[in-house]
Amino acid sequence: MWSNIFLFALLFSTYNNVAVQSFCVADLKGAQTPEGFLCKPPTSVKVDDFILSGLEPPTTPPSSNSSKITLTPAFVQQIPGLNGLGFAVARLDMDVGGVVPLHSHPDASEMLIIVRGTVTAGFIAADNSVFVKTLRSGDVMVLPQGLLHFQLNSGNGKALVHLAFSSSNPSTQFLDVALFGSNLNSDLITKTTLLDLFEVKKLKAIFGGSG
Amino acid sequence: MWSNIFLFALLFSTYNNVAVQSFCVADLKGAQTPEGFLCKPPTSVKVDDFILSGLEPPTTPPSSNSSKITLTPAFVQQIPGLNGLGFAVARLDMDVGGVVPLHSHPDASEMLIIVRGTVTAGFIAADNSVFVKTLRSGDVMVLPQGLLHFQLNSGNGKALVHLAFSSSNPSTQFLDVALFGSNLNSDLITKTTLLDLFEVKKLKAIFGGSG
Amino acid sequence: MWSNIFLFALLFSTYNNVAVQSFCVADLKGAQTPEGFLCKPPTSVKVDDFILSGLEPPTTPPSSNSSKITLTPAFVQQIPGLNGLGFAVARLDMDVGGVVPLHSHPDASEMLIIVRGTVTAGFIAADNSVFVKTLRSGDVMVLPQGLLHFQLNSGNGKALVHLAFSSSNPSTQFLDVALFGSNLNSDLITKTTLLDLFEVKKLKAIFGGSG
Amino acid sequence: MWSNIFLFALLFSTYNNVAVQSFCVADLKGAQTPEGFLCKPPTSVKVDDFILSGLEPPTTPPSSNSSKITLTPAFVQQIPGLNGLGFAVARLDMDVGGVVPLHSHPDASEMLIIVRGTVTAGFIAADNSVFVKTLRSGDVMVLPQGLLHFQLNSGNGKALVHLAFSSSNPSTQFLDVALFGSNLNSDLITKTTLLDLFEVKKLKAIFGGSG
Amino acid sequence: MWSNIFLFALLFSTYNNVAVQSFCVADLKGAQTPEGFLCKPPTSVKVDDFILSGLEPPTTPPSSNSSKITLTPAFVQQIPGLNGLGFAVARLDMDVGGVVPLHSHPDASEMLIIVRGTVTAGFIAADNSVFVKTLRSGDVMVLPQGLLHFQLNSGNGKALVHLAFSSSNPSTQFLDVALFGSNLNSDLITKTTLLDLFEVKKLKAIFGGSG
Amino acid sequence: MWSNIFLFALLFSTYNNVAVQSFCVADLKGAQTPEGFLCKPPTSVKVDDFILSGLEPPTTPPSSNSSKITLTPAFVQQIPGLNGLGFAVARLDMDVGGVVPLHSHPDASEMLIIVRGTVTAGFIAADNSVFVKTLRSGDVMVLPQGLLHFQLNSGNGKALVHLAFSSSNPSTQFLDVALFGSNLNSDLITKTTLLDLFEVKKLKAIFGGSG
């Protein structure tokens, strides 16, 4: 009696033949829109568009860079199936003494899950309240959108943190890199931050900024 | 005195010559974005982009398929002017004994307006509360987004239902077709649903699933 | 072996005991927010919160009012379960000669499904293009958000139209009632519309406007 | 010790090489989406994409058109960097007696900042309440989305108003131009507005409407 | 010279004294809105509103329930600071043979980060495409909103998975619990799923459903 | 003939008696939601809820504070009718040498309209591109959401700037005040910014920070 409900299903789907899928996998080579990438044709979507097999310990140890951290993102560029879904994750490896310097995400909130180690994290609210906590394995912390925050490995061993973001393509503004690694004129920096010119010049030498 | 306000209007609109229209009619042959289709050029928009002349009784009777229903959508593929507006409608014809099998819309809520006949409809909430009601002509029911629901013609005659959706391109996941008409491995089905393997095999034979 | 998966489900849901439901049924006596009403407590939600049993032919015939139409809404005030879902429906009965005068919905697009009769409907776009069509049973038309539009029964019999809106609580601004039924000063009306003062006064007498 | 944090920053950004910027500057020659224009490639973005150097007094005096006003927009077509940001501004110059005739913005709310002069502004709410106020330099007024409103220079000198909109590309529907400058049939106008046919014909002659 | 910029800051903030914070920490005892909970007064916000110290291995082993899994959420009820931010995380412990039965999230997409073990996960798209993959430590997978999906421990040891959701309060609909643990009438189940009545009764006995 | 269309309008509006208005004026003494304030009862809304009569030159000259600027906001706290509309404006007075120090708005983009004077403004993008421009009367500049930016009066006289924001209640994070006027521990500051401890202490003395 019900043997051709399948035919019905096929009939139904002919009406929806353009967009029967309920997701929009990024065409990473195509144009971007204010809400993400254009979609790949549904027929070319495959399971690996939803998967990243690389959220692993970095092959180059974090200690090989001066901040002793490595961030491995699983954002829309790594997982095209995240397009338009409004969230993403990442992995953060921190060697002893590792620091994620003061930064903000202009378009995303962040969560930390401490997998291993001891991490001191904090953010400064718009009313200048400070929210700092030393977190251990199993602790979770939220860092609301657009606010300056930091993480540092405050333990005696390596730390591993899983991150979640409320954007599939979060951008990051590092305070030091923005100020001292860009070509923002040193005079403008001192006028708008009150930092000492000597200090600015010293940090520009470190971060490679010009101007 | 006011004779050239029209000139003013023309002047004003020259500033807006790219996008003076306040809608985005779908270019159905163009790419999709996470928020819908790219827009047709305003100059090629015509009244029929906002109209569907086909929400009529089906020429093939619903009883010619095993579920005894016919769904006629008026979604963005049928009405390009719906693009970006976030809603759509459809017509559902149900013969005696017709059933819309258990299904959900991953990206849309639904409303039913019973035009003719007697229809029993229901949905199961995320806390497993069941909301079922037998509806008659003039009754309206809401089925919130993403929840399993069904409709069946519980009367003695044909039923006609008008549907509204909170998406201009709602997708549908039929439980039976997803499980038994797809290539999802039978072993995975039994493990993740506790359904009996014999039952799974029997339904796969009906719905045409492999694996 | 699986006999206590139910226990698991119960355990799981204890974590979500405040908001395990995935909808927000309006507390119609409570405060409103920019996104709709506050939610009723989940424990007091019942099936009738999702149902309206009154989208029926009006008991008072449309011809008893001068525009010869009756609009019966199924909005959030009638169906509290619509709260936050972003759409609604309504029923429009039009006697011979019935007219829905020129109006707009500041916060919603609209769709018409002609159930019975012949209806001429149209809207004026922001670039002053006019989109008018005479619709018959089975025709569907979209009227994009915020634009002036109208419907009139252009046939020889009664017309019945089902409406859908992209808001669960659409508001309506009737041009005539706004101008001539409000207390907007007549002098301001003539200056900002160029309508003749005599015409304004005449229509104010009809619509009851002061000023 | 910290000398290669800059290297770290570079490493980090290689992951984000497609979309490291947190904005989407409009490609004004490209297609539009329901949420705005496609984005320019990040490498071609320059400071002038965020700037308009033309919100100045009009070279042609407002009094050269019959409504004695000039509107100078700073919308996404003028400032591509506004794409996707959801707001815009404009400048309104009004000569003595200048009037912005009754109109609405289907997709945007508006704010007025009176820079100079005396302006009477008002809007009509969906419940026909009228909100009118005579504003002077330093006064600010909000006009909610989709509602009919107007501004007129009610002082003895020129007026200058800065406008803000809650859309980066607001559209405008002028009542008079929509009704009397379009090709909407005169018979339809009288039926759906109750305006006198003679009045309609007279205004069509002024605004250039046909039909 | 700059010594009172601090005073300026104080002055500035007096304007914003109601809502100077840029987040809305949930008042978990207050009412809910369609977009989340009402906000706590800013003055009562403390660092622990942004922290959960409980995403740890469960004290009761997963194997003590029949599905051999334990889910530990870090949703808005656990972390009030998540309110309105649109994402959340959780921890999933799976013993050998553990299964998260077929389910969907009506209002959230999900990501899996495999921390330890081997997990087979999959989802069925609305066009009945099946996306299944066996994931190992370091693999990440996305499961788009509203679609049926499952996870099972397909390895020889325990598995640990971190989950992220695109909602701060995701709801879950387990297929088995919805069908066989609710009071949905058995006759309705067989009619709308084609499952055998005997099978339905057997599973109702397991999951505790009535009707 | 049409004399009772007004009656019709009254009839129609009885259906909408709770929320016939299409806006939500803030009840500033009530609770906040993630999307803004609760709404005032429609019956208590008055024209002044949409108006601020105070965007005037400050009575205390900007030069009385060390940054020589005064910001006068027209946000939702000043204009309750802005609630839920997603934008706001403000007035910025800058004396000679006035500076708006480096800051960001976590939840809003900003536009500048230079009314008078010469202002150098700039922002740093997430890829460390710097966008700086010296603006004169009639220039408009956009500063995208969440990015560090500044303005300084680079001319010889006073400057007046009108600001627009893409939030009705934008928050602000001043870099100096966040770092040196809060109680963020000095050791954490040096570790996460590489600033010299002596510099940090000196600025804390200026901005009043502890820790």
From TrEMBL, chains A, B, C, D, E, F:
CDD domains: cupin_OxOx
Signal peptide limits: 1-20
Pfam family, one: Cupin_1
Main location: secreted
Residues holding oxalate: 105, 110
InterPro entries reported for this sequence: Cupin_1 (IPR006045), Germin (IPR001929), Germin_Mn-BS (IPR019780), RmlC-like_jellyroll (IPR014710), RmlC_Cupin_sf (IPR011051)
UniProt-annotated binding residues for Mn(2+): 103, 105, 110, 149
Keywords: Apoplast, Disulfide bond, Glycoprotein, Manganese, Metal-binding, Receptor, Secreted, Signal
SUPFAM superfamilies per UniProt: RmlC-like cupins
Cellular localization per UniProt: Secreted, Extracellular space, Apoplast
GO cellular component: apoplast
GO molecular function, one term: manganese ion binding
Disulfide linkage: 24-39
Glycoprotein among keywords: yes
Record domain Cupin type-1: where: 53-201
The family this protein is said to belong to: Belongs to the germin family.
Full protein name: Germin-like protein
